[in-house]
Design goal:
This protein is α+β, with helices and mostly antiparallel strands. The chain folds into 3 domains: 89 residues, no CATH class; 153 residues, 2-Layer Sandwich (Alpha-Beta Plaits); 55 residues. It has a 5-stranded antiparallel sheet with strand order 4-1-3-2-5, sandwiched between helices. The longest helix has 34 residues. The N and C termini lie far apart (68 Å).
């Protein structure tokens, strides 16, 4: 059955990022669990640790299944642009030398970007390429241009978040070039730095954050995404790997059954009728309390609808009485 474009669009960048993170983490867990299970015998601590890893793996599979239901496609061409960008960013972010970049723009650069004939993202992308590789060669890089309309002050609203592959020795040099190329006259106010660079620990989460504004129709930016050709290819490959993995996973119900079996406490004891009676009595009391709360809630709603002013006065009187008791 062919999936509609609107159905695919129900997936947010954050959900796509979550699918990526649980996929990458699950690949690590499979290796670790297989290593421990290959042993002929496990100590009590090793068994406890392996069960914890297996529990995390099952929880990740449930999360992946839920996220994949929202994406609803395994075809790269059918994926909306804002979700493609998430996978491109995450693919770069999963590289060992990847860095997360947030860069504000100076007034001059922002004005040039907004007036660029090929669009804002193309202008910013060309400047990024010159920063990362002055010789014009291709590199792993992807970014999203964002127009923070709620931002107030002397600086432009235009800025970008992205992911670049940068070796450790070039870390400081790249930061300096970004400041010079994009934010030469940017005024740093209240700790809002012109350029922030950090290492990436959750590639999917960062990619989802970078892409959070892409679905907004009133962003004020024509084309807000940029990626190099290697980043685009890596993003497509990551998408195919993650969705194929999620597609062949057991159903959510099967995962939950396995999870219950794994986390069920092994308590060996003789039957105790008195304890069963106590548990049943406690269960009955909880049900009585729940029923009473529902009745009280319905009563409050009815009072509020019938006489709002009286209900408000009674509520104020009740809070006053409680306040007096607390002060005593």
């Amino acid at each position: 059955m062919k999936k509609s474009h609107n159905a695919v669009n129900r997936c947010s960048p954050a959900t796509a990022g979550l699918l990526i993170d649980v996929y990458l983490r699950s690949q690590e867990l499979h290796v670790v669990i297989a290593k421990y299970l290959s042993k002929t015998s496990l100590t009590e601590n090793e068994k406890y640790w392996a069960d914890g890893q297996q529990t995390e793996l099952l929880l990740n599979q449930i999360t992946a299944r839920e996220a994949f239901q929202k994406i609803q496609t395994t075809k790269w061409g059918a994926l909306p642009e804002h979700l493609k960008q998430v996978f491109k960013l995450a693919a770069v972010g999963n590289d060992e030398q990847a860095i997360a970049v947030s860069c504000n723009l100076s007034s001059k650069v922002a004005a040039s970007a907004l007036n660029a004939s090929r669009g804002e993202a193309d202008y910013i992308g060309r400047k990024i390429r010159r920063v990362l590789n002055p010789q014009g060669g291709s590199n792993l890089a992807a970014a999203v241009l964002e127009n923070a309309k709620q931002r107030k002050g002397c600086n432009p609203r235009l800025h970008f978040h992205g992911v670049f592959r940068v070796s450790e020795k070039d870390f400081t040099q790249v930061k300096s070039k970004l400041e010079k190329s994009f934010a030469a006259d940017y005024k740093e106010v209240a700790g809002n730095r012109s350029v922030v660079i950090k290492r990436i620990y959750d590639a999917g989460r960062w990619a989802g954050y970078c892409s959070k504004s892409l679905r907004k129709r009133d962003s004020g930016i024509g084309k807000a995404v940029y990626s190099t050709i290697p980043a685009s290819r890596a993003g497509e490959q990551l998408f195919k790997q993650a969705t194929q993995w999620a597609r062949q996973l057991p159903s959510i119900e099967e995962c939950r059954v396995k999870l219950n079996e794994l986390t069920k406490p092994e308590i060996k004891c003789n039957p105790c009728p008195e304890l069963n009676m106590l548990i049943n009595k406690h269960r009955e009391q909880k049900e009585i309390i729940r029923r009473s709360r529902r009745q009280r809630h319905r009563s409050y709603v009815a009072q509020l609808i019938f006489n709002p002013d009286l209900f408000k006065r009674q509520l104020i009187d009740m809070f006053d009485a409680i306040s007096k008791k607390i002060s005593l």
